[in-house]
Design brief:
Pathway: Protein modification; peptidyl-diphthamide biosynthesis
Largest sheet: 5 strands, mixed
Oligomer: single chain
Catalytic activity: diphthine methyl ester-[translation elongation factor 2] + H2O = diphthine-[translation elongation factor 2] + methanol + H(+)
Number of domains: 1
Organism: Parasitella parasitica
CATH class: Mainly Beta
Structural class: mainly beta
Order of helices and strands: EEEEEEEEEEEEEEEEEEEEEEEEEEEEE
CATH architecture: 7 Propeller
Strand content: over 45%
Enzyme class: hydrolase
Shape: globular
Strand order of the largest sheet: 1-26-25-24-23
Radius of gyration: 18 Å
Number of strands: 29
EC number: 3.1.1.97
Number of helices: 0
Length: 340
C-alpha cells in the first residue's frame, strides 16, 4: 500500500505553476527553478498574451525566491547535465517559440547566456525540451517539440549561440513531448495529442517506429539514465508504459495510476528502479519497479488542489521532491517514502 506524503514547505507562485527542476551539479544542487504560465487579458494580433516568471530557490533556506526572471509563459525547462560555456545552465522554452539559456554567475544568480527562436513562427508554442547531455557530456544538443507538431534539434553554432540544426514535421497535432535516448542520442522520441508515440533517427528525420496503443494523447517520456534500453512514457490515459527500446512493438509492462492523466515522468537521480509522476488531477506519485519491470506506487502526494504539471527530484537530498500545480499556483516540497 502506498504511503501518503505531506508537504514540508510550499510557495505561492501567483502565476500558474507548471515546471519544477532541481540543478544536477553538486555545487548548485540546492537550487530549484520553478516555471509559471499566465494567460493575460492583453492581446497582440488578436492573440492573448501569455506571460511567465521563473523562480530560483535555495531549498536549504526558507522558501523565499533568490531570483525572479520574467519571460513569456514557460512551457518547460531543464538543466543541462554538462556545463555550457563553463556555466551550469538552465534551458527554458516559452509560449512564443523561444529558447532561453541562463547560467549561474559568481553571485549564484542566473544570467542570460543565450536566447534564440526555436521556431520562427511566434504563434507556435515551444512545448518541451530535453538535453542530450545526460550521459554523453560532450553532446550539447537540445530537442524541442512544438504546438504545430514539429520537432527541432538545436545545436551550438559556430559563433557560440544555439541554432536550429534540424527540423521536421512529426505529428499533425500538438507535440507535447520530445526526448533523447540518453544511451544513443541519435535516437529521439516524440509524443503528441494525436495519441501517437514515435521514435526517430535524428540523422535522417525518419521514424523508426510508430506506436498507436496509448489510448489518449502522449504527454511525457524519459529514458532511464541508469539502465540502458529502459524508457517510460505517460499519457492522458492515466497509464505509465515501460519499454525495452530494443523491441518497441509493445510495452514490457504498464501501470494504471489513480487517475488524473500523466504530465511528467522523472527517473530518480541515483535509484535505478524509482520513477516520479506528475499526474495532473490525481496528484504526484513515486513508482517503484522491480527487476521483472512490475511497478507499484510507493508514495502518494495529494496536497495539490489542482492539476499537478511539474515534479522533480533533488540531486543532493535523497528522495526530496518539488512538485507544482497549475490553477492553485502552488509549489510544494515533500519526501518520497524510502523502504527499510
Amino acid at each position: 500500500m502506498a504511503v501518503q506524503s505531506s508537504s514540508i514547505a510550499s510557495f505561492d507562485t501567483v502565476y500558474s505553476a507548471d515546471s519544477t527542476e532541481f540543478c544536477p551539479f553538486p555545487e548548485h544542487a540546492q537550487y530549484l527553478a520553478v516555471g509559471t504560465y499566465q494567460l493575460t487579458d492583453e492581446q497582440q494580433e488578436n492573440v492573448r498574451i501569455r506571460e511567465g516568471k521563473t523562480y530560483l530557490f535555495d531549498v536549504t533556506k526558507p522558501l523565499v525566491p533568490k531570483q525572479v526572471i520574467e519571460t513569456p509563459a514557460v512551457l518547460d525547462m531543464k538543466w543541462s547535465h554538462a556545463p555550457i560555456n563553463d556555466k551550469h545552465c538552465l534551458g527554458i522554452v516559452d509560449s512564443v517559440g523561444g529558447f532561453h539559456l541562463y547560467g549561474f554567475n559568481e553571485e549564484n544568480h542566473l544570467t542570460v547566456v543565450d536566447h534564440m527562436q526555436a521556431t520562427d513562427n511566434t504563434s507556435v508554442l515551444c512545448l518541451s525540451l530535453d538535453w542530450a547531455s545526460r550521459l554523453d557530456k560532450s553532446d550539447k544538443r537540445i530537442v524541442t517539440s512544438h504546438s504545430n507538431g514539429d520537432i527541432n534539434i538545436l545545436s551550438p553554432g559556430d559563433s557560440g549561440g544555439y541554432v536550429i540544426k534540424d527540423q521536421w514535421h512529426a505529428h499533425d497535432l500538438e507535440a507535447w513531448i520530445s526526448a533523447f535516448d540518453y544511451w544513443n542520442t541519435n535516437i529521439v522520441y516524440s509524443g503528441a495529442d494525436d495519441g501517437l508515440f514515435k521514435g526517430w533517427d535524428a540523422r535522417q528525420q525518419t521514424p523508426t517506429f510508430t506506436y498507436k496503443g496509448h489510448m489518449m494523447g502522449v504527454t511525457t517520456m524519459q529514458s532511464n539514465p541508469h539502465k540502458e534500453h529502459q524508457l517510460a512514457t505517460g499519457s492522458y490515459d492515466e497509464t505509465i508504459y515501460f519499454w525495452d527500446t530494443r523491441s518497441m512493438r509493445q510495452p514490457v509492462s504498464t501501470l494504471q495510476t489513480p487517475g488524473g492523466g500523466i504530465w511528467r515522468l522523472k527517473w530518480h537521480p541515483t535509484r535505478t528502479n524509482r520513477l516520479l509522476s506528475a499526474s495532473m488531477h490525481a496528484g504526484a506519485f513515486v513508482v517503484d519497479i522491480d527487476d521483472q519491470c512490475e511497478a507499484r506506487i510507493a508514495t502518494s502526494f495529494l496536497d495539490h488542489t489542482s492539476m499537478t504539471y511539474g515534479a522533480d527530484w533533488s540531486f543532493s537530498e535523497p528522495d526530496l521532491v518539488a512538485s507544482c500545480s497549475f490553477y492553485d499556483h502552488i509549489m510544494h516540497l515533500w519526501k518520497a517514502f524510502t523502504p527499510n
